[in-house]
Amino acid sequence: MSDKQSSNAYWQANLRIIWICMAIWALVSYGFGIILRPLIAGINVGGSDLGFWFAQQGSILIFIVLIFFYAARMNKLDRDHGVDE
Amino acid sequence: MSQFTLNLIVIGLSFALYIGIAIYARAGSTAEFYAANRGVSPVMNGMATAADWMSAASFISMAGLIAFTGYDNSTYLMGWTGGYVLLAMLLAPYLRKFGKFTVPEFIGDRFYSQTARIIGVICLLIISITYVIGQMTGVGVTFSRYLEVSNATGLWIGAALVFCYAVLGGMKGITYTQVAQYIVLIIAYTIPAVFIALQLTGNVLPQLGLFGTHTESGVKFLTKLDQVVTDLGFNSYTGHHKSTLDMVLFTLALMIGTAGLPHVIIRFFTVPKVSDARKSAGWALVFIALLYTVAPAVGSMSRFNLTATMWPGAETGETFSQPAISLDTIQNDPEKQWMRTWQATGLLNWEDKNGDGLIQYYNDAAAAGPAAEMATAQGLAGNELTTVNNDIMVLANPEIANLPGWVIAIVAAGGLAAALSTAAGLLLAISGAVSHDLVKGAINPGISEKGELLAARISMAVSILVATILGLNPPGFAAQTVALAFGLAASSIFPVLMMGIFSKRINKQGAIWGMLAGILSTLLYIFTYKGWFFVAGTNMLEDNAANWLFGISPASFGVIGALINFAVAYVVSNATEEPPVHVQELVESIRVPRGAGGAVAH
Fold first, then answer.
1. Chain A contacts of B81, Cβ < 8 Å?
2. Is B7 helix (H, G, I), strand (E, B) or coil?
3. Range of B486's domain?
4. Which residues face A44 on adjacent strands?
């Protein structure tokens, strides 16, 4: 039973990290890059605006950071719950 | 040394390298053939995944797509990279833990159904075969352009090369050649971009050059580009001109489509541990981003260079401050040799419609503004740069910028590396589905390991043959590959895998009906606008934004197909019995990393 509870807690913690990462993932691409672009149009970046930067460069860089952040958090979570390899 | 000899030497050297690797990395077991014995380090796998993923479309076409549309086509940049976030968090680690060899195998085991597995195989085959035709066509075109052989000869040379390392080495051989191919293609893409960024903006890094200052005029490069293209009556480069909803949906379709492409997913079966699968997705994206952050710079700068070639005044000051390029210059100036070379391929063409000896490039659809005024003042009868194919923005880039001959040769080798590496990955996915899911899974379960390995090699050889023949006679739908492959991957494979991992309640019936509903709705929508089975003239509605349901383009519909798949699977599963206990335990077990171990040769 305790095994089951622990694995349930592990899975819930994993889902929480995924939700956080996916929220940022959507915010930088669909948000800043497309839908919210008019809101941040006042911020100038190299001849265009911040939304253009997010759409053409920024979102890709943040995607990379997100994956490595997720991988690192999950390594820690694996160890904490004793399910690492 | 002539350009032809240079091309021959560089391409020949790259091919010798791939064959050397193939001989070194032969596969001796099914575990090696399908999954490189799960011994590939995450960084190496990331590099191989990047080469696997970046096809002729990424290398040759993407910068051109961005060049002529600007901001609106950022969808490709975000869509083709964001999918890796989904892979890293929603699919790759769990499928690695599952520890088998193919995507349909997971579908079959998780949904305890041979039918589900076969539907998975069919989706995989449609996706991979349409995708591989595009690669083979790209190989043929590159060969005929740079090595002056016929399209068919080029294709057969490419096929023979893939045969060498794919049939001999399987996943193991393909992985190591893909690493080499990645290095060739990234060098080929970056060198011309660095030169051009230096020329235009004084920045070594194209990524900074894009947002830097245009040296000649002293204003920001993007501001300058916006001004030049709007002067000519085109939409501004950085502006938002398309439907926001369709942009969002198309990006999402590309993202979940990417995450659902079988040849990408199987790359994550090759790493030793679950934690490596997560990390490897990150490395793959790092290597992909090296090209994808350069692509918008290549696109915008080549657009600027092309425009400045046509209107020399644009380089230093006002677009119309000097007359347009003259026909005489195009035909006789040694620096404009590239225009004549590309005219011969049909990808670039011009026509002096009003006979004034000048070739004016502008948007003749613009009714007002500087371009329309110029056209009236000069008595023009329409745009005189009649053809500019997207693809020449990358292929002719070094020539437009007057770069040395060896750069051109490297670009040719890079284009071939991009097409061949993707083709090999797709062929592996196809042969795995045929030999492992059909032959071993359905037709002859008792087959020996040696027999299965032979079956895998034969199906690989047959797929190469089929792909080559289809590449020689591309069916009408070759150009629609993107819509079809991504639409199907998004509407069938991605949802079924995700539900299989994140829900214990989705059962056999739910998965089968969900997949069928997703695929059929997506195909129906695409065929409605593109013609039944892409036969021209059989479309029921004109393919334009006014006819699309809620303004959703056929290429974006994969997202709706995925939603339909999720909804149907949920409803049907809840109306039928729970999955058996052993399946629920399987789901429990793939959710935790411990115990992934080595290859499972069952």
1. 59-60, 63
2. helix
3. 3-301+403-591
4. A49
From chain B, the residues in CB contact with A45 under 8 A are 211
Give the bridge partners for B387, in sequence order: B349
Do A83 and B596 lie within an 8 Å CB cutoff? no
- What are the chain A neighbours of B592 within 8 Å (beta carbons)? 7, 10, 83
B220 beta partners: B213
A37 touches chain B (CB under 8 A): yes
- DSSP state, residue B556: G
B477, B504 Cβ separation under 8 angstroms: no
Taking CB atoms and an 8 Å limit, are A30 and B252 in contact across chains?
yes
In a domain, B82, yes or no: yes
- The structural domain count of chain B equals 1
B348-349 vs B387-388, strand pairing mode: antiparallel
pTM recorded for the entire structure: 0.93
Report the CATH number that the domain containing residue B139 is assigned in CATH.
Answer: 1.20.1730.10
Contact assignment for B278 to A74 by CB distance below 8 Å: yes
Give B-chain residues touching A14 at CB under 8 angstroms. 591
Q: pLDDT averaged over consecutive 10-residue blocks of chain B (602 residues)?
A: 88 91 84 88 94 88 91 95 96 93 94 94 90 82 78 86 84 91 94 93 94 92 94 94 92 95 93 94 97 95 92 87 91 88 85 92 89 90 90 82 86 90 92 91 88 91 89 66 82 96 95 95 88 76 82 89 97 95 93 72 42
Domain ranges of chain A: 17-80
